[in-house]
């Protein structure tokens, strides 16, 4: 028996334009036919659900739409969800955007606002949805096929995936299309459930974390970066901090570094409500997988920030007057300065300060930076 892959379409706006609704339905049917033809080893279903939450006027923030799609996906036991609206989408880093995929949520949002009407809309919308699905399936931009990087909406059209991409997608789908953990066993311990969720698709989870480029988080989160910078400068110029950091045992410095990264990640994860994906209660593999991706992304980002602060602190410490620093640190001469140890101490303090500053960020901003794969 072929594995079932379920991709739900969610209409999130109160649309009553018959031509528009017909175009949406035709695009859905053509995408479904293409997937059935190109991936016959799977059984495909693509239900269409109406959630007329928004008026079809004005621009919409993609984040609430992604969260709506995630809730529908989990409630209806789909594998993926496509949320469609006729509205423009508010971009964060581009002039405009017509699609936002989130591989962490396994949901994508698409806008038909710039895709024309009639047959043009059907073809372009179908091509855009296939492009979004490519991102959800872990496929990067290619030179041909639906996942190619285009500069204008009119270049999207329904097309088959190249053979090498098809094989990559098939491998990914085989990993996710099996029965969910909660369906295999009714009662789980929380820790064992999360461990099994990770072991179900470790490669996919790690790829999702890597594709989110977590090392870029400090570039987009100004308050987090500012808090880390202020604490670093303060401790570099404080004699008492030098004296404490220079005399801490190496083992304590090591454990301090590990714990600071873990504590900072946990503070951000729960402080920004990233653990709350939907209102659905109980242990669900889809929710657990998303939480693992989000936590892993933050953890990698905090590790990268620790390394950056360590390198900067090391460089600045070497540039400071060594005799003055030696006096601050309480060592007999500059050649006894444990600068590397102190830089590690600085990095640990800086990461904790960054976590406190990060919780001053707007919740929507930090969620968007972590959840958005790209703005198409």
Brief summary of the model shown:
The chain is an alpha/beta fold.
Task: Give a written overview of the molecule.
The chain is built from 15 helices and six strands. It has helices at residues 18-38, 62-75, 118-136, 163-176, 181-184, 190-200, 202-211, 217-220, 222-236, 239-246, 250-271, 285-319, 322-329, 339-358, 363-371, and strands at 3-13, 42-45, 48-54, 80-85, 99-102, 107-111. Strands 1, 2, 3, 4, 5 and 6 form a six-stranded mixed β-sheet that branches. α6 (190-200) packs across α12 (285-319). The longest helix is centred in the C-terminal third of the chain and has 35 residues, at 285-319. The model has no long low-confidence stretch (mean pLDDT 80).
């Amino acid at each position: 028996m072929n594995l079932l892959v379920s991709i739900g379409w969610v209409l999130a706006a109160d649309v009553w334009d018959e031509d528009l609704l017909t175009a949406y339905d035709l695009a859905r049917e053509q995408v479904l036919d293409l997937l059935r033809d190109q991936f016959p080893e799977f059984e495909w279903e693509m239900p269409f659900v109406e959630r007329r939450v928004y008026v079809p006027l004005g621009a919409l923030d993609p984040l609430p739409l992604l969260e709506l799609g995630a809730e529908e996906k989990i409630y209806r036991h789909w594998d993926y969800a496509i949320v469609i609206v006729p509205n423009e989408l508010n971009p964060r880093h581009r002039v405009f955007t017509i699609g936002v995929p989130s591989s962490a949520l396994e949901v994508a949002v698409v806008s038909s606002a710039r895709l024309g009407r009639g047959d043009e809309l059907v073809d372009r919308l179908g091509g855009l949805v296939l492009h979004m699905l490519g991102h959800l399936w872990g496929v990067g931009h290619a030179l041909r096929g639906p996942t190619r990087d285009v500069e204008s909406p009119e270049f999207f059209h329904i097309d088959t995936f190249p053979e090498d991409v098809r094989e990559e997608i098939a491998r990914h789908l085989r990993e996710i299309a099996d029965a969910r953990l909660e369906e295999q066993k009714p009662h789980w311990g929380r820790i064992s459930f999360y461990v099994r969720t990770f072991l179900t698709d470790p490669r996919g989870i790690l790829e999702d974390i890597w594709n989110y480029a977590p090392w870029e988080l400090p570039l987009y989160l100004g308050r987090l970066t500012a808090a880390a910078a202020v604490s670093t400068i303060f401790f570099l110029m404080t004699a008492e901090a030098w004296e404490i950091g220079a005399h801490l045992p190496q083992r304590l410095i090591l454990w301090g570094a590990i714990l600071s990264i873990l504590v900072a990640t946990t503070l951000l994860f729960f402080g920004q409500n990233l653990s709350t994906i939907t209102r659905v209660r109980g242990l669900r593999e889809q929710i657990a997988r998303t939480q693992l991706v989000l936590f892993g992304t933050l953890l990698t980002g905090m590790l990268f920030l620790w390394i950056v602060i360590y390198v900067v602190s090391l460089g600045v410490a070497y540039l400071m007057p060594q005799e003055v620093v030696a006096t601050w640190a309480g060592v007999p001469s500059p050649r006894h300065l444990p600068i590397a140890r102190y830089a590690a101490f600085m990095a640990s303090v800086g990461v904790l300060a960054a976590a406190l500053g990060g919780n001053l960020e707007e919740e929507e901003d930090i969620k968007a930076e972590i959840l958005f794969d790209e703005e198409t």
